[in-house]
Amino acid sequence: MITAQKKFIPSTKHFAGVLGVLAATLYVTPASASDSSYDAAMEQAEANYDAAKQHCDTMSGNTKDVCIKQAQATKANAEAHAKASREHRETNKDAQQEKMDARYKLEKEKCDSLSGDAQDACVDRAKATYKQ
After folding, report:
1. Integer Cα distance of 121 and 127 in angstroms
2. Is residue 110 a part of any domain in this protein?
3. Is the pLDDT of residue 117 over 50?
4. In a designed cystine with 29, which of 41, 53, 70, 95 is the match (CB 3.0 to 4.6 A)?
5. 102, part of any domain
6. pTM higher than 0.90, yes or no?
7. From CA 41, how far away is CA 65, in angstroms rounded?
8. From residue 91, how far is each of 86, 94, 95, 122 by CA, in Å?
9. What is the pLDDT of residue 130?
10. How far is CA 128 from CA 33, 71, 100, 104, 131, in A?
């Protein structure tokens, strides 16, 4: 006797446990994090992926396939976010330095209207203020 297999269509309740584990990977690095935080974020993404995959291994069929794809997508998202955060921090740091350099040049130019000790003090103050 041949019986028709019933096709399983996963619902959101089947993925509730997986999504809870995976949601933590979306924002694993704060904006002020250093490169060590980038490394930690990448490690966290990998650990979360491994935990989610282990949970997926308790499933079977299409449900398992979808679960694994969700885990992979979430890991890729977390890694992309960590990379973007690191690049954003580096860009901001460069921009801040350019602003400081421009302000220093402006203050130093203003010092040119002075002479003697006043000019020296003005230049020293500009150097100290703008870290030159």
Report:
1. 10
2. no
3. yes
4. 41
5. no
6. no
7. 25
8. 9, 5, 6, 30
9. 85
10. 26, 51, 11, 9, 5
Cα(79)–Cα(82) distance, rounded to whole angstroms? 5
72 in the Ramachandran plot: left (φ > 0), alpha (ψ -120 to 50) or beta? alpha
How far apart CA 68 and CA 18 sit, in angstroms, is: 10
Mean pLDDT of 71-85: 92
CB 39 within 8 A of CB 2: no
Residue 111 backbone dihedrals phi, psi, to 5 degrees: -70, -25
Q: 11-20, 24-33, 50-59: which has the highest mean pLDDT?
A: 50-59
Q: Per-residue pLDDT for 5 more than 60?
A: no
Residue 74's domain spans which residues? 14-97
Structure tokens at 52: 């989610």
**Residue 19, domain member (yes or no):** yes
Q: Do 14 and 58 form a contact (C-beta atoms < 8 A)?
A: no
Q: Please, where are the H alpha helices in the chain?
A: 16-23, 35-56, 61-111, 116-129
Q: How many domains does the chain have?
A: 1
34-72 b/e with 16+ CB inside 10 Å = b?
A: eeebbeebbebbeebbebbbebbeebeeebbebbbebbe
Residue 6 domain-assigned (yes or no) = no
